[in-house]
Amino acid sequence: MTDTTIKTAAMLAIGDELLSGRTKDKNIGHLAEVLTLSGIDLKEVRIVGDEEDEIVAALNALRTRYTYVFTSGGIGPTHDDITADAVSKAFGVPCLHDGEAMRLLGEMYARRNMEFTEARQRMARMPEGSRHIPNPVSVAPGFVIGNVHVMAGVPQVFQAMLDSVVATLPAGARVLSRSIPCPFGEGDIGTLLGAVQKAHPQTSIGSYPHFDGKRFSTELVVRARDGVALEAAAQAIVAMVETLAAERESARTRDLGTGELA
Amino acid sequence: MTDTTIKTAAMLAIGDELLSGRTKDKNIGHLAEVLTLSGIDLKEVRIVGDEEDEIVAALNALRTRYTYVFTSGGIGPTHDDITADAVSKAFGVPCLHDGEAMRLLGEMYARRNMEFTEARQRMARMPEGSRHIPNPVSVAPGFVIGNVHVMAGVPQVFQAMLDSVVATLPAGARVLSRSIPCPFGEGDIGTLLGAVQKAHPQTSIGSYPHFDGKRFSTELVVRARDGVALEAAAQAIVAMVETLAAERESARTRDLGTGELA
């Protein structure tokens, strides 16, 4: 079922390693793509380190402002994995060993003949009242509390968790888009394109320059939830590109003419 | 000259395309690496879209809190390039066509026989009182106002601008690090490692799991500004790994012994 109200989202990526440059984040771009396909607008991303106060403050700022919050990182077994504690603190509830998570993890380590250490048991901790997010890759679950979805930082696990989360969210009204190739650089089209954007306020028009080593061209992308508004803006852009091309061709012919006379 | 006070930084990446998933950010990880090498602690990153109020709010939150702020994106020639306006608004100063930037850009377009259009002239706009950040790739300068460094979003240009910015900042006290390979997974070492961290509060110890398809191992990284504290924590970790390895070996031998008796 499609929900026609607009859903917004923020992401909070957690981990010192993202801020030291040791690890390059791969989850932000993936989340952005998946949410766009689901009709949910990602509005803001924050990255903070493994510091409880920072995580709590960022989480409280984001969860009160957007429909959904998605976090990555900090739910492993070591001392720097403090996301479950920070999320509990943000919601003002205790962080407890979850019975079902203890059972799932205990069974897995028993199957593997590995000890279910105190450190490994940390991965079963979550804020009281959370629901699980299943982890088909390495068992230790993520969790949902309120509008906050807490997932692992390892990209394969993050992606698997996100797949099951997204399946449970009502799809929003999808943003439609049209992409129009343009043989001119941004400096040639900027003013005209700004006028088209102004005349079509229901749409969002982006321009993405490309340089092939010899000359600039541009990909123009119109986005809108309303198909009629999208089509009107797209036609205005196509007309703009054709007019510019005709002007260039006429200038070129004129120059050639002058050349012959010279 | 090395400044011994600790310098902090935040990054603000600007652009709808980062939030829609159309473009995968490449600047955050690069900035993180460069700042780490310069002894500047990157503490927070935010990504916002091309919306003036969002940019102004994020910038004012970050610039009052950290020693430096670095932005990427939104300084091109099209209508969605609004970073110069937003930064001006955040600082409460007018956004003007800078004379020197107009000259640099005007000369470049004249050399290329290209028209210096109104759209291209937008790239010369910056908050009154800004200093240039040179752009050796495509001429249009970035700018510095207060503690805020405004750079392009295109990674080649961002990187070139950052190189010249970093050269002007006083180097902070470098964070030293030692990396210790560990043949055990996080679940095996988590509790012991937490105790080592507690005993060495001047250091920051991170653990980075690796799975080779058969078994988990871990890379343990200690970071500290003080070399003596670093060495003490590193030795405690090496001792921890050796003790665990000896215990495993002794358990293995015992199991083999039991096997022979059975």
Structure explained in plain terms:
Two copies of one chain form a homodimer. Chain A is α/β, with parallel strands linked by helices and 262 residues long. Chain A has two domains: 2-172, MoaB/Mog-like domain (Molybdenum Cofactor Biosythetic Enzyme, Chain A); 176-261, 2-Layer Sandwich (Alpha-Beta Plaits), CATH 3.30.70. Chain A contains nine helices and 13 strands. Chain A has helices at residues 16-20, 27-37, 52-63, 83-91, 99-111, 118-121, 155-168, 186-199, 227-261; strands spanning 2-3, 7-14, 40-48, 68-72, 95-97, 125-127, 131-133, 142-145, 148-151, 171-172, 176-182, 204-211, 216-224. Chain A has a six-stranded mixed beta sheet, sandwiched between helices. The first copy, chain A, has a three-stranded antiparallel beta sheet with strand order 11-13-12, covered by helices on one side. Chain A is elongated and about 85 Å long. The N and C termini of chain A lie far apart (69 Å). The model of chain A is unreliable at 258-262 (pLDDT under 50). Strand 3 (40-48) of chain A pairs antiparallel with strand 3 of chain B, so a sheet runs across the interface.
CATH class category of the largest domain in chain A: Alpha Beta
Instruction: Please estimate the helix content of chain A.
Output: 40-55%
Mean pLDDT of chain A: 92
Structural class of chain A: alpha/beta
Question: Termini distance of chain A?
Answer: 69 Å
| Quaternary structure of the protein | homodimer
For the record, the CATH architecture of the largest domain in chain A stands as 3-Layer(aba) Sandwich
| Contiguous helical run count of chain A | 9
CATH homologous superfamily label of the largest domain in chain A: MoaB/Mog-like domain
Q: How many β-strand runs of chain A?
A: 13
Outline the biggest β-sheet of chain A. 6 strands, mixed
Task: Please tell me how large the radius of gyration of chain A is.
Answer: 25 Å
Organism (chains A, B): Ciceribacter selenitireducens ATCC BAA-1503
Pfam families (chains A, B): FLAD1_M, MoCF_biosynth
InterPro entries (chains A, B): CinA, FLAD1_M, MoaB/Mog-like_dom_sf, MoaB/Mog_dom
Protein name (chains A, B): MoaB/Mog domain-containing protein
